[in-house]
Predict the structure.
Amino acid sequence: MPGETLWEIARAEVERRGAGSRDGGPDSGEKTVFFLGSKGGGKTTIILRCLDRDEPPKPTLALEYTYGRRAKGHNVPKDLAHFWELGGGTSLLDLISIAITSESVRGLPGSSPPCPLPRTLSVVLVLDLSKPNDLWVTMESLLQATRSHVDRVRAKLGKTNSKAASEMRQKVWSHLQKDHPDRELIDPFPIPLVIIGSKYDVFQDFDSEKRKVICRTLRFSAHHHGASLLFTSKSEGLLLKIRGAINQLAFGIDKSKSVCMDQNKPLFIPAGSDSLSQIGPPPIPDGDLGKLRVQTPLELWKKVYERHFPPQSTSTLKDTRDPARDPQYAESEVDEMRAQKDQELDQYKSGSSKSWKQMDLDP
């Protein structure tokens, strides 16, 4: 309109695009995808493949960030996706709060003030199928820590915008049909969740009964959390399917309609596609089922799974919270100097303690 300044025109255009996105039009907003999971499970490889980056993956030290852009059409602003990756398996849970913030979940429909670039947050949990004894404890630790933090963020959001927090709670049910037979029996994760079983090339050589237990357990856990479950390996075909699923989270690209529930093939089960009747009961004799003291179906599946695959001892799974002491980052010269400084520090503490004890203080 005549008389409008350049800034007023730009602001109106941004608000127009934001309104289009909130009204169900093309999503020109930002999305955040948070990767976490088994140590050495292949998270970095998946991210690089999704971003078409032809470079060898490097071990993730702690928490790493990268981003990707993708255009949807001519003269249309590129979508921006933020990728966070938590390294160290279950040893660095405190860093979850850096990637998952009220900022990363802002811009929900009805939020006030409205955000011109809506953001949606999703989580990708990568589990190493070649290490079944570590699988449940890794999954449980990471999902519990992430859920607890998201709940805190949502509670904080509710204090300033109860409508947005309520819509966030309702959104987690969007993938599940209202007439789904298990709707009253599941506890969906508070944000979109994808569980990826990696190293399928190793897993497929397992005994068939072992594969059956692992597949059914992961299917139950994914269904219970309202998550998608996908298996992958270094196979180009499987990586392309994973790439499509991640791009749907990151850029809103249409998701695949394919489904595979055959335990003899790589699983590909979108959220809401499975059911308890298809998964079947926990793999345990009926006579033993009644002997297990549990309060929830999830606890029951955990007990049964750990009968088949006992978790490793706590000493084996002990968290390495200090990356400087992690063997994979060993540097002889640096480590020798560190040991010398630690020794000097101990001597200083000991000397200081003696000095205080010998000091004659006036009453």
